[in-house]
Every structure is written in structure tokens, then in C-alpha cells.
Amino acid sequence: MHRFFFPWSLSILLFLFAIPTFLEKIDANNEYQADYQVVYDLRRFRETQAVEVRFHIRVINLRSDFFVNKFIISLPSRFYIDQIRVFDDTGEVNYQIITNGDITKIEMPFLKPRTGKNSINNLYLNFVQKNLFKINGQIWEVVLPVLERKEGENYLVEVVLPENSEKKISLSKPKPTLISGREIVWENPKTKMIYAVFGDFQIYQAQLTYHLKNQEVFPVTKEIALPPETPFQKIYLESLEPPKAVFVDDDGNYLARYTLKPLESRKITFRGHVRVFSRPRQEMVEINRKRLAYQKKYLLRAQKYWSLKNEDLDRVKTLRTIPEIYSFVVDTLRYNYQKLNQQNPRLGAERVLDNPSYAVCLEFTDLFVSIAREKGFFARQISGYGFSFDPKLQPISLKSDILHAWPEYYDELKQMWIPVDPTWENTSGIDYFSSFDLNHIVFTIHGRSNDSPIPAGMYKVDDSKDIIITTSNTLPQEKKILRVRATRFVKESRQDNKFSYVLRVRNEGNVFLINQPLRIESQRLGSDQQKKFILELLAPFQEKELKLSFYYSQKAGYGKDSLKIFFNDQKIHEEMVDVRSSIVSPLRLGTIFSFSIGVVFLIVRKFFLK
After folding, report:
1. Residue 224: its pLDDT value, please?
2. What are the 10-residue block averages of pLDDT along the chain, 610 residues in total?
3. How far apart are CA 569 and CA 219, in angstroms?
4. Of 234, 279, 393, 456, which residue has the fewest beta carbons closer than 10 angstroms?
């Protein structure tokens, strides 16, 4: 998109030709008041890809001996604007365009400015801008600069969506004051910029390459980290060389293992789609809540990059809450763009506090995680991909390919992990604490360890290009396929008729299976006894052993039985099992009892009744 690194500025040419600007101290603060209304009209956006922008600037003279006779609006020269027209209360104004380096100025004199205390002069600036709203895959995305203004001045921003638009605002920083039909209004925003996303999800097409090499003279197993399933992220696998094994670790990382022959080199390529949501998926939130019980054992540990010196503890001793910790990190560190072009050693929390102007995303993340853990909050690091529309505003700084890092903290009230990005707030001024965006793709989750598993893009040879991610307009098809690999039928207890059917299953579909029901049917189990079992989580290519336990009643009898397993309303397995040796009928039990009494009687008679 565009670089809104500095907010738009207004320069005002005053009587006596004093020229204060909003980028420097204004000496005439009490001489006038300016109120602003800015409308971004998207009604013709579909046809033209352009936005009609309308400024209404209302200037009130606060002194009888002072008036404003000229406005100058400065904006980045990269902004492509056209069809400029300027009016005041008396007619159309002959404006002047002045370009100076990266800045373009529109100079607008009043034709006949009114004078006198409390007199009002209105100025109307209209133009068309083609590079403001960005169509990015499934979403529209925009960053609107906010004019810097004096205390007491009013500022209103309005966005008008096209008629019959299916795009609804899903993310906004700050939140709108009013949403009414196709109109979205922000009144007196206090941020430097307004960031808004229209659309509930984004789809990315991903190609990730992993270069594996065995330098030993014997076979070894190598492990790679694939994009995981998270509350805000869903994975659709397109192709992957079948691994030897797949598993999901305690942090939720999706890991695949490959066996390499002696001195073998191999290139593994993951192709698939990643769907990123603006709101969390409840099924994955529940999975994470269950994981937390075990994760608590390590989520407060200090580590190499997540530790603080004693003198640093004094600096953060007043911080009590997560918002305070976040603000401290944003305000203390400064992003170092020069570091991107150099060797980029990771400093960690301790060293970056000694060198706060030498930080990139890893240092912002390390400092947040360190302080949060020190204060008793569960926190961890996420490594992944930042789909940045402006690297100056949203830099991506892990050296291998174009990766990004950000932290998460666990919100005890919401009972879920909350992603935040102090780096991008520091560089853009956009709020990345109260809400996130659709531009962060997770590659790895670092809770147990501060540096493993290694994310995609770090399995390199030379300067290979290993990450290719583009937006997509196509929603991939979900394929849920479960195969039964092996079975065992066993009796669990001698005292009752409890049995287990042990299944070895494999996910051969293209998506994670989450809380999927399995149904077991049997000839000897009545319809009211048909059992349902829940498959909690199974990644593509992953195998897992499931134990399905159930009871046979005495009324069911004994002998052969047909067990059928259903998944996704389809029968995936059928097997005949023999329960004859396990269930003993009442008639047979009586016969055995009578026979036993007879044997005892004969033994007693033989030895004692001689």
C-alpha cells in the first residue's frame, strides 16, 4: 500500500505571513480554531478502484485583529491524487501544487476571507485517490492518516461504502464512533492513524521450502515445523512429501519428521492455504484451554533471551498489568531499520534494555515475554510471516527470508491466548493491543523454548528463496478423510462386560480434524446403546491410537458380533469380533456351577468318606 509514516500535515498562512505548521510548535494557538470533516466515498470504488476524498475545513477567527487567508495541505508525494478542486464560500479557488522531495503541498488561498472575531471561513478540497484502499485477497484494507490538531478542535472522519456492499468492517483501530448502514464514522480519534479492515477473513496461498541435510555417515531423523492450527488460523494442506511421523507438541506446533540416509540432502516443500480469521474459532480456544493445564509447568520460566538483570527489575517494578507492560515495551524501545541490512544477532531482553535503539521485532517480543513472565503472566513468542503493506510502517526483520515475531499473553478472564504486536505499534502508531489484524501468519509457537522449533524460512541453503506467500481469492475445499490402520478387540474387566475396541487411525485429509465424532454400531448393541466418541485433534498425516470402550449386556448374548465405525456420516471400517470367551450366559453359568459342585462332592466322598 502506501507509506503513511508521518501524518498528513496542515500548514496555515496567517495574517502578517506567519506560517506555523502542525509538525512544529504553533505560536498562534489562540488566534483561530479549525474543525475538520473528511469523507472517503467508496461508492464508485468497484468500477474505478478510486476513492473520492472530500475535505471540509471550517476556520473560526478568535480575534478581531487576526485572520487566516491561506491553507497548505502537505501529503506524501507517493499519494496518487487526481481531479483536484478547491472551493471557499465565494467560489472556486485557484490552488497551487508544490512538490519538494517526498512531500506534495496543495496551497489554497481564500478568495475573500472574512475578518473579525468569531467570523467563519470554509474551505472545501475534493480529489480522487486511487491508491488509498487496498484490495488484498478477501479483504479491503486501509490506513487513514489523522490530522494533528490543537486541543478543542473537532475532527470527524467518515467512510461511505458502495451500495449493496457485502464487505463489512471487521477490524478497526480505533473503534468507530458510529456504524450506520454503509456509513462508518470516527469522531475526534486520538491516534495518529485509523486502520480498518473490511471482510471477516483472509486467505493466503503458501509455498514453504525446507532444506534438510544429513552430514553423518549413518541415518538421522530431521524435524520441520509446518504452519500450525490456531484459534485465528486454519490450514488447508495441498501437497507435502509424506513424512515418517507427524505430531503436535505441547505448544501446538505442527511437526513432521523425515529420515535421511547417510550424507543425504533433501528438499521438502509444503504447499497449502492459510485462512486467517478476525475472530477466534471457539473449537481451537477450547483445545488451548485444555493444553494450558500442562503448559503452566513452563510458561513462567526465564530463559536465555527471556530474563532480566537485577537493575532491570527495578526499572519494571511499577508495572502491574499487561497493558502497562505492553506500553512500556512500545515506549522504551526504538526500531532500528539499519539493523535489517546488517548481521542481526538476537539481543534478548537484558541486552536490548542496555541498547534500546537497537531493537527489531525479536527484541520487542523478548522484552514483553520476559517482563510478563517476571510479573506472573503466561506469555510466549510467535514466529511467522507478516504480510506487510508498508515495510516502513510494518517492518519484518528476521534475517532469513521475510519473517516476523510477536508475543501472545494468556488472558485469564477470556481464557484464551491474545496476540499483540508492540513492534508494529511502535513503527506505525496503530493500536496492536486492543485488536489484531489479518496479516499475521503463524509458523511456530515458542512457549517451552525461546528458540525452537525453528520456523519455516530458517532451513536455508545459501540465499535460497524459501517463503512464497500471496493472497488468494479462492476458498479451498475442505477434505475430511480418516483411515483405520489397525484394530484390537479386548476385554477390559473380568468382573463386568466392559470391552475396548482400539483403533489406529490416520488423517489422510487436507485439514486438521477437531472435535470430530466417531460412531460405533453393533448388532448386539441396541439403538439406545450406540456409542459416540470424540476425536479431539488430528493433524494431516498424523496417526493416533483411539480406545473406544463400551459394555455388552447379558441380554445381548454371546458369540460373533459385527462392529462398524462411522466418521463424517460414512462407514470407514467394519469388523467381526468374537465375544464368546468373554460373555458368559446365565444358562452356561448355571451349568458350570452345577458341574463344580459335583466335582467337589466326588472329591470329598473319595478322601473323607472311606
Report:
1. 98
2. 35 34 41 92 87 93 86 80 93 92 88 91 93 84 83 91 82 91 92 88 96 96 98 98 97 98 96 96 96 96 95 95 98 90 85 95 97 98 88 70 91 97 92 92 98 94 88 93 90 72 93 93 60 89 88 65 88 84 41 50 54
3. 42
4. 279
Please give the pLDDT value at position 607: 53
CATH architecture of the region 9-197 = Sandwich (2.60)
CB 122 within 8 A of CB 56: yes
Segments of 372-491 assigned E as strands: 379-386, 404-411, 416-419, 440-446, 467-471, 482-491
Quote the cell numbers at residue 21.
505548521
Contact 275, 206 (CB under 8 A): no
Give the burial class of 465: count Cβ atoms within 10 A of its Cβ; 0-12 exposed, 13-18 middle, 19 or more buried. exposed
- Grid coordinates belonging to 470: 500471496
Contact predicate 136/195, CB 8 Å? no
* Maximum Cα interatomic distance, the chain, rounded to a whole number of Å: 141
Sheet holding 103-109, edge to edge: 9-14, 68-76, 103-109, 96-100
Class of domain 482-578: mainly beta
Which residues, 6 or more positions from 188, have their beta carbon under 8 angstroms from its beta carbon? 154, 155, 156
Contact predicate 361/406, CB 8 Å: yes
Does the fold of domain 482-578 match that of domain 9-197?
yes
Q: Is cis: bond before 162, omega within 30 of 0?
A: no
Domain locations along the chain:
9-197, 200-476, 482-578
Beta-carbon contacts of residue 595 (< 8 Å; ≥ 6 apart): none
Q: For residue 400, what pLDDT is reported?
A: 59
Q: How far apart are CA 206 and CA 75, in angstroms?
A: 35
Q: Is the dihedral of CA 436, 437, 439, 443 positive or negative?
A: positive
Site of grid cell 485557484: 94
Q: Interhelix angle for 322-332 vs 361-374, to 10°? A: 150
The grid coordinates of residue 267 equal: 528438499
Question: What is the C-alpha to C-alpha distance for residues 256 and 150, in angstroms, rounded to an integer?
Answer: 57
201-213 sheet: strands from edge to edge? 233-239, 265-277, 201-213, 467-471
pLDDT at 140: 87
Note the pLDDT of residue 594.
53
| pLDDT value at residue 588 | 40
Return the DSSP state at 404. Answer: E
Q: Which pTM does this prediction carry?
A: 0.83
User: Which residue carries 496503530 as its cell?
Assistant: 430
- C-beta of residue 367 within 8 angstroms of C-beta of residue 450: no
- CA distances 125 to 81, 165, 183, 276, 569, Å, are 12, 27, 20, 38, 62
